[in-house]
Amino acid sequence: MFQIREKDEKTKARTGVLSTAHGEIETPVFLPVATKGTVKTLDFSDLEGLGVQGLIVNAFHLWIKGLDSVQNTGGLHSFMRWDRPIFTDSGGFQIIRKDFDFKITEEGFVLKSPVDGKKITYSPEVCMDVHSALGSDVTFVLDDCPPYRSSMERLRGSVDRTTDWARRCKAMRRGGQEVYAIAQGGTDSELRRRSAVELSEIEFDGYGVGGLSIGEPRDEMISSLEVSVSSLPEKKPKHMMGVGSPAEVLESISNGMDIFDSAFPTRNARHGTFYTGKGKFDIKKSGFAKVKEPLGPGCECFVCRNYSTSYVHHLFKEKEMLAYRLLSIHNLKMVLDLFAGVRMSIKENKFSTFAEEYLSEFTT
Amino acid sequence: MFQIREKDEKTKARTGVLSTAHGEIETPVFLPVATKGTVKTLDFSDLEGLGVQGLIVNAFHLWIKGLDSVQNTGGLHSFMRWDRPIFTDSGGFQIIRKDFDFKITEEGFVLKSPVDGKKITYSPEVCMDVHSALGSDVTFVLDDCPPYRSSMERLRGSVDRTTDWARRCKAMRRGGQEVYAIAQGGTDSELRRRSAVELSEIEFDGYGVGGLSIGEPRDEMISSLEVSVSSLPEKKPKHMMGVGSPAEVLESISNGMDIFDSAFPTRNARHGTFYTGKGKFDIKKSGFAKVKEPLGPGCECFVCRNYSTSYVHHLFKEKEMLAYRLLSIHNLKMVLDLFAGVRMSIKENKFSTFAEEYLSEFTT
């Protein structure tokens, strides 16, 4: 269930309300990434304090180690102690990129279990069973997301396979769990169009746009996104997979994207990068040792309300784990504030101005 | 300022109230260790939520990296965002045990700066200047704490030096900061007595008992503790340095000790050990994967109120930093609950029974 509320007049940006089994989400929305069942360094009360509307967890990463714990505690919501919406990604993207020694067959991904070394198959059907065991609200089909610069043959195979797998996933759709397809096609506009059209014909609850922001030049990303979005049903929610940096977020929203997830704020935090309205900064820089002021001017996160930049600098230099947590909280707040600003600007029909002003201040 | 309130009739256990520039502390009390300005993995609100009465920070560890940050933000209390009492240990213990390439001279510890490699001296006078810059409520004199099994000559030297340095520290006592001496003497009862008597004659605001629980057999620890305590002024607060395990805590309290600090609950947490009233457990054990119940039966910590043992097990297996934080919170609560039970039992004149029952349930 997705209701579009306001539409920006100059762009395709829009606000909406997504209803799930665990409550409503106002879009455009940012979902922090909780790959293995936790947003790294944070607990549920940190996330509630930040006003996080929903999370995205990786079905594959949990499955590969065994689902006993999650199932035994009654599913992800009680396992993670999170009663708001949970999305579960299929893991197609991660299987190809990370250290899983895999083969792609028409059946699915065949790989070696890191637990006992046995050959196991992660098929669309297994993927849907995992989503079901996890009890998430929104699930993604298993897709085949080839790396940037893959051959045309590889890209074509990926689109065919993604459509086929998506159809098999939809056949297993269960009540209470929405199923989103993921449009692929690399940076080839004809393949982008075909993938989106084929998936639209099968009819899903929502659509992810995948395979972008993985190394391609900015203009290719934008043109590919435009093709995907314009070939997908306008009224359905659209999820931009793995995108979280302000410039890409604003560009995607102006192209009609509604939902985002990315490890951007939290992963960068753990590497010592923090963000303010002015851009990104390295907390390790010695100049921060004497800065009494909080990390972000005007920021109202827990960290900025309580700690000096100097203290966070000290913690990071000493490799104190608290530093990673504090920077994660701050960076998430910064991204969530951006989304709140976006929603407000669309309601006030000022999205373009908002985006321009934001980006003119924000230097990367 | 220390007021003894109730005394146990069968032992030397007692309750009291310690007044400091940042509020009162009910004793016996446990101070979590915030070596470098943070209790590892936790923020001030976690500690407030746990009802922590005070913290102990290591003056030497902060000094060696430069005090600019702390001084610039107005001292430890504002730096750490902690407005309850802070104790600062001198670091004598750590200099000898850790990787500091040091020499002991009558002047103080001579060592190489890890920052620029230059030879620097950490003397009683420098130590007191550091305490002053940090703005803590209770400070410890610089002591010389030789390892267990040191020669009699080394032990004698340590007692002489500790007395001399304590006198030099007291000469620099400033208003608003209490100064506690640290009684040494290894496990030699005559040296234990002499150290305590010499320090008592100089008159300090309180007394630490140091150099115990560093590898010596339990009976030697107890007999040495008894000698130190009986040779120190009864009315002054007494701090058992670096002791936090239930058996040693209860033994020390029954010998009249009032204040404790130890990395025991938090360091063990980071290694996957958690405690309940029944003893210690290893969260990594596969059996915990399916335990829906919280870590501690009846425990009311944030973790036990919200998460299953299964979830914490999962986080620890996945090396998620949240696991270290959750176990630290739980273990601290377990130690703080022990101290709350001790205080109550002394008030009700049932300390011995309480201690016996606690230890009969608690298997290590």
What would you say about this model in short?
In chain A, 42% of the residues lie in helices and 19% in strands.
Count of runs of 4 or more consecutive helical residues of chain A: 15
Can you tell me the CATH class of the largest domain in chain A?
A: Alpha Beta
Task: Going across the biggest sheet of chain A, name each strand in turn.
Answer: 4-14-13-12-11-10-6-5
Point out poorly predicted stretches of chain A.
none
Please characterize this protein's 3D structure.
- Two copies of one chain form a homodimer.
- Chain A is an alpha/beta fold and 364 residues long.
- Chain A is 42% helix and 19% strand.
- Chain A has 15 helices and 16 strands.
- In chain A, the strands form four sheets. Chain A has an eight-stranded parallel β-sheet with strand order 4-14-13-12-11-10-6-5. A three-stranded antiparallel β-sheet of chain A has the order 1-2-3.
- In chain A, strand 8 and strand 9 (119-122) form a beta hairpin.
- The longest helix of chain A is centred in the C-terminal third of the chain and has 27 residues, at 321-347.
- The model of chain A has no long low-confidence stretch (mean pLDDT 96).
